[in-house]
Write a structure and sequence with these properties.
- The structure holds 2 protein chains of 2 kinds.
- Chain A is an alpha+beta fold.
- In chain A, α2 packs across α3 and α3 packs across α4.
- In chain A, a hairpin with a 5-residue loop joins β2 and β3.
- Chain A is about 40% helix and about 30% strand.
- Chain A contains 12 helices and 26 strands.
- The N and C termini of chain B lie far apart (about 40 Å).
- Classes of the chains: A alpha+beta, B mainly alpha.
- At the A-B interface, α3 and α6 of A face α2, α4, α7, α8 and α10 of B.
Chain lengths: ~575, ~180
Amino acid sequence: MENNIQNIELINAYLNKRLSEKEIQYFENRLKADFDFNILFNEHVTFLEGIKRQQLKVDIGKAKQSYIKSKWLKYLGFTSGLIILIISVISNINSGESIIEIPNPIKSEVNNSVSILDSVVPNDSIEEIVFKETIKTKQTKTKEVIVKKEITEVEIPKKSFQTFTINQKKDTTIICKEGTKLTIKANSFITDNSKIAIGNVDLKVTEYYQLSDILLTNLSTQSDGKLLETGGMLNLEAFSDDRPLKLKQNSSIDILFPTNKKNMKLFTGELNKGNINWSLADVNEEVEPTIEEIEVIEEDIDVPFAVVEEVPIYPGCENGSRTQRKNCTSEAISKFVLRNFNTQMADDIGLVGRQRINVIFKIDKNGNIVDIQSRAPEPELEMEAIRVITSLPKMKPGKQRGKAVSVPYSLPIIFEANGVASVGRSTINRRIRDSVYRKSFETRLTGNDNAKVSISEVSSYILRSSKLGWINCDRFVNSRNRIKYKLKIEDVKGIIRVKMVFKSMSSVLSSRRSGKEFDFRMVPKNEDIMLIAIKQNEGKLYLDVIDTKTVENPNIEFNFKEINLENLKSELKKLNKLF
Amino acid sequence: MGFMNDKKILEFFKDGHREKAFSKLYSLYPKIEALILSKGGNKQDASDVFQEALIVLNRNLEKSDFKLTSSFYTYLYSVSRFIWKDTQKKFSKQELHNFNDIEIEHFHSVLEEKKYQLAERAFLELGERCRQLLQLFYYKAMSFKDIANMMQFKSEKIAKNQKYKCLTKAKDIYRTSNSIQS
């Protein structure tokens, strides 16, 4: 890693032309000779170009604005020309009068003022007009939203929230009705003017795990057009005496989502024209804690396993010479991993051939296994490696000059996968292990003060959010084969919402309506789906559910049937088993 | 837009007045819009395609061996057509066969740009702070000291560490998205 950093610094120096001629030559020769370095270089350049695209888009956006402005200017130039004409006509009339009453010098002043107008008026009026335009569109937008909200509130009640009153002075853990567990540190909430909220805080939590709740609230699982699979969504709001609160900078809430799904990440949502869009939460939230660790570790010393004077000792390896103890420990670690690593898991997810996972962890000053990092082509492999390494027994810490030190240890795990999916046996095993693992982890999370939770363990189901509002525990669904999917509805009176629910995964897509068309944009091909159309018109509700597959040019006709709210709810509840 | 105008725009590019050059080139937009609309796209598509064509143009102008052999209009029109066709995946074998040299060159530029699009997408999947950090370092060429100050990192070293982490993360995302694509 250290090496990699240096290489990237070198590449940056080269790109910024900070190298001497000799260094440049050496660099360019290396590019030709060193294949890995060449790849790294090209990748870095590509990535920088990627960032640059963002800047270019900003420039182009500005250019577009100024082009539009200049178009306006031409138009306004014409109209303001007219205005000036009128003004000068008027002033001519005035000055005509003034010729009679007032002598020449003042007439020229009048002319001056006209010419000032000439230069000032168009500019100002442009600014104003452009400005008004934006305000106008904004206003209509907000109006739209409000109108929609009012209607939905009248016709389809939103899921009701649960309120928890918490004491800001203490750390608090809340378990909600559907199993969400929230852990909140003391003094996490601040008011709008950045003061710590005093006294009790009302936390309003709405949980969305059931498909029916998701559909009724008009939620969906997509991120900028990309499909997400959800492990549960939440809406969190905090109030003190009915005043909204937010989370203090650098403080966060740990959220446990009761889901079996793997590799979930935290997404935060924003409502736009009634539809929700999710974006991956700040990477910083995962990174920050490790940075704190770096700071601490800088004071302590890390001594690699290969060079440390006294290696950490695996239980049972206490005897023998230094070399014997060292070999015994590394053998014991390898054996432990071999014994416990669930290679079946690789078969279950359909991997074939040699699999390599690189794992780095540290045996800290107390002999605990910490800072586990894992790299593999498949996230499942990474998680499995982390799971196994986490369960290594506590060791006797390594020592340097008589002082306990933290020792980094790197371990490649290599094995052959058969690619033949076996019948469930191992998955069952795994689930049991998972739940044991989860339990011990939960106790660490909720347990007292010193319990430390490493972020890599957390990512699968406990996520940390530094924001309130809409929060989703998701992962991206990558599908190779995607098609455009559009539907047409002839009778479009009223408000119609069409959602697509995927049977194979917990995903809901919403459609964009334009005229009679309902556009889902790109969707995975040949997936079993349910199309759920809800119509609200003149105080009545209509529903139609169609069971189909995603194919190109779908030929779907909805047959809306009137339904009352209670039945709508129970019809949607019937779909809950899909999730 | 005549020859004189093209020369002026080229000078803008050369002198680093990219924004000015772009806004001059925007006068060609209505024609490109008409093209995309006639091919079944909507106004948003047209705006996206034109933006992409400008990016491709800019990238090529930055290459030392690139020479604009036609007018800006012809170039942008041709590149826009390829971009739109590429998004629609509407190339017949026959068509690919009949490309002339210039068209092949334009087509290649469009395909090359997709690589950078992926990198951009990877960048956009990063968190806000990571994006800001990378932009400040790579685009604004700020020192880690200034970045640490501005973004309230405790030290230069932490800013540096963080930047490296963000970069690695983005590259990981890029690599996975790349392997899915290919």
